[in-house]
Amino acid sequence: xxxxxxxxxxxxxxxxxxxxxxxxxxxxxxxxxxxxxxxxxxxxxxxxxxxxxxxxxxxxxxxxxxxxxxxxxxxxxxxxxxxxxxxxxxxxxxxxxxxxxxxxxxxxxxxxxxxxxxxxxxxxxxxxxxxxxxxxxxxxxxxxxxxxxxxxxxxxxxxxxxxxxxxxxxxxxxxxxxxxxxxxxxxxxxxxxxxxxxxxxxxxxxxxxxxxxxxxxxxxxxxxxxxxxxxxxxxxxxxxxxxxxxxxxxxxxxxxxxxxxxxxxxxxxxxxxxxxxxxxxxxxxxxxxxxxxxxxxxxxxxxxxxxxxxxxxxxxxxxxxxxxxxxxxxxxxxxxxxxxxxxxxxxxxxxxxxxxxxxxxxxxxxxxxxxxxxxxxxxxxxxxxxxxxxxxxxxxxxxxxxxxxxxxxxxxxxxxxxxxxxxxxxxxxxxxxxxxxxxxxxxxxxxxxxxxxxxxxxxxxxxxxxxxxxxxxxxxxxxxxxxxxxxxxxxxxxxxxxxx
Length: 500
Prior knowledge:
This protein is of the alpha/beta class. The protein has 2 domains: 31-219, no CATH class; 233-482, Rossmann fold. The protein is 53% helix and 8% strand. The strands form 2 sheets. The protein has a 6-stranded mixed sheet with strand order 4-3-5-6-7-8, with helices on both faces. A two-stranded antiparallel sheet has the order 1-2. Strand 6 (380-385), helix 15 and strand 7 form a beta-alpha-beta unit. The radius of gyration is 31 Å and the shape is elongated.
């Protein structure tokens, strides 16, 4: 009898293993449509991997052309998000950022090669690299959707530094599992090592690459020079110019006219890291000036990293000086102060006062109440546009005070997006309702209704704007608000009202 050839059997077995690991090869010359179908197949296979489900090399269309297409797709996703974030007209293509934004591909290729060598299945290197590139595209998409959601919903924005790690860590774990289990599991003694190697290399770009690198960047050479030049927030020129800006703003406040109830306004944009607060402070000042003829009695304090010399810095000290100046120029028994504050608010009820690199004191309800009481100003309208601002109602309320807040004490408000003209509350209250009502209380009723409708349409958690009106200030404001013939829409506390 012929004896079986054991060496031939081993060769056949080895060939069978390699054939099983090798994905189906596409016929040449199939064209772009076929390449895009293969791209879709790879992305679908990556979704299976992202769900930690079994996946074989046969589900992947692994070849050099697909690696290139996946690489380009990831770059296109990056450019699309940059255009959303920066804007077409405000940016330029930064070729120097290319190494940083494309670095992710090198660790994945290295990982695929090393895993193939460790598993003694070199044919697995290409499918594993294809799986890694496909997972990278899904990771990028998830990261950009998360960043977009953080722009729209403040609960996500507050947790974004932690949440931003979820997509890369998830992708790294999925890639590590793929490296261990693609086609056949790794032998037990190598399993942990292969998993850690693959996952660590997939996660490396998130640690070593500057996340601020953008292919479409807002930074021009001139802006880079300005960031360290004489107009930068941290420059000596900016610092010393603030004394003059504040003095000029205070000097411009004219005294009130005896016998006439007039409005004096202070607008305070606290957080300088986003220019929406600067714009809102300036916009609210302009609206109140138009409605109540308060232009000669107004001060704007606002922080801005991009425009640090546009307004005097908004600090607790500058607010204290502004209140003292207004108190001197007002007729205390006649005139009314409208103080508008816009910024980010925290869950522990601080209004953020920020302008890096300076360290500034935040505003708390107690600190703000002390500043107002020390000023001696009797009649006050205080409007606060910030998350959790309802916590300021009780400390500031009084018979001669009206307090309006954008949200409840345990609620977020929305719209704090860089580049926006208004927050959602500011747009509804100042941009729309106050011009229509010519009444602080009436504008609240209109704005509150519109905010509730918009939040319902967008399926956002209700921000629940708040209002407290003392009997003394309500009667006193009649003289101010009817003086120019505006419509009076005072809200009443019937069950049909949406006041809270």
